[in-house]
Amino acid sequence: MEAKRLQLLHELVPTATRIAILANPNFPDADNQRRDLQVAAQAIARQVIFLDGGSERDIDTAFTSLIQHRAGALLVASDPFLFSRRDQIVAMAARHAVPAVYQWRDFATAGGLMSYGTVLAEMYRPVGIYAGRILKGAKPSELPVQQSTKLELIINLKTAKALGLEVPVSLLGRADEVIE
């Protein structure tokens, strides 16, 4: 998913040769995210700069570093902590006029530029079904792992306009929702 978000960000901001990645090093999948993003960046001939987002204070510091490195865009990695700091991150991206892509729709509806990721609401039903099965005696280790199959692309045109970005028609055509 991180690689796909990087590709979409590159499509929206092709002039950004340096892309900052805000990631939480404490997230269990952080090493895999980093590796996937480095490979994806090489594929599109872009340099990535990893910024530590493991605490509220780190996020503020990360934006200072993003500006010092002259990053042309920002990818916020998937992580529950970063999701909990959604308003702070969206506000900082707006304050510094940095185009950013996020995983969940909540970022785009809060004023973020673009999100691409799983539809969290789609997972509520399977979780409820599994909880019911477990309460009826099923062993959690015997239940198959399920992953969300529904993904959505949300583009916030108000934010794009504020950043002076022209969203390509090819990207708009793939969007599940466009916020105007």
Explain this structure.
With 180 residues, the chain is α/β, with parallel strands linked by helices. The chain folds into two domains: 2-118 and 151-179, Rossmann fold (3-Layer(aba) Sandwich); 119-149, no CATH class. The chain has nine helices and seven strands, in the order H-E-H-E-H-E-H-H-E-H-E-H-E-H-H-E. It has a seven-stranded mixed beta sheet with strand order 2-1-3-4-5-6-7, with helices on both faces. Helix 1 (2-12) packs parallel to helix 2 (30-43). The longest helix is centred in the C-terminal third of the chain and has 15 residues, at 121-135. The radius of gyration is 17 Å and the shape is globular.
Main attributes of the structure:
18% strand, 2 domains, Rossmann fold, seven-stranded mixed β-sheet, 180 residues
